[in-house]
């Protein structure tokens, strides 16, 4: 009989937050012949998407687009809808056992520290022990990179990196098409870890001479202590607060003032039509809003008519590749990209953590720790 280990499962938060976190015991999984079993040390507080209805009605009127009756929207869930809590799978740990057909190497051996790339078919929930069918999904973690930091990389940071890479391609085209003195304006929308990652990755990505004084970044965020700290070190980045108590027109004008006009690219980590509609109001004709695949699937039908009328585009950003994850690990370990602040919690505290994230009460990222291994 297999031994048992604990598992924490976080579902997409619904109207009742406490109903989205489950903890139970599961058998310790057997090791696949060509894979490995991982002892999970740290895991990012991400949720697994519930099954969603495939039908999303197309709503063409602007007033409908601004409706607050969006999937998952609740005034208490600002954090959830603006990127403090997002779907994904973030695991860092140590190799517990290798499959019978695997030959150990310098970087892949029992006891080695790794992060797990969130491949299709990844197990549901965070168990103390998980298995991977193939070693290609494991990325070695350097000794100088804490596992609590490494656990932030496979979903949130990876999505942010791919969003910045996608934005970079648009920047290159804009600089070719526009006049020599044109400044490409980028607006990053969100709060918590996702937007902080995007901000720091973008700063690193556009620091080379050809982009100096040619790219301007602004961040629109809810109240978040993480950005208050970031503002001290990122002097070239403008911050604008989206206070939901203000009228929509005031928020749009405040954002355009902070950006010195309409922007060319928006990286939007919001999850409601209200956030996306606001982003479009701050966007130039011919501009693009980058959103996650989850948000695009759900909201794009509502905006098809509006973006056609305004000559704008909404583009879905994929979660990112395993090669990008390897690059992230290298850049964070070397200090080229500074990770956002994070707070570690015991895995048993997951229900409290999710509740705090839904209220944007945790600066940066929340990490669940299963074992006291560094």
From TrEMBL:
Signal peptide: none
Gene3D superfamilies attached to this UniProt entry: Medium-chain alcohol dehydrogenases, catalytic domain (3.90.180.10), NAD(P)-binding Rossmann-like Domain (3.40.50.720)
Keyword vocabulary terms for this entry: Metal-binding, Oxidoreductase, Zinc
Xref: Pfam families: ADH_zinc_N_2
GO molecular function: metal ion binding; oxidoreductase activity
Domain Enoyl reductase (ER) as annotated: residue spans: 15-368
Full protein name: Enoyl reductase (ER) domain-containing protein
Organism: Rhamnusium bicolor
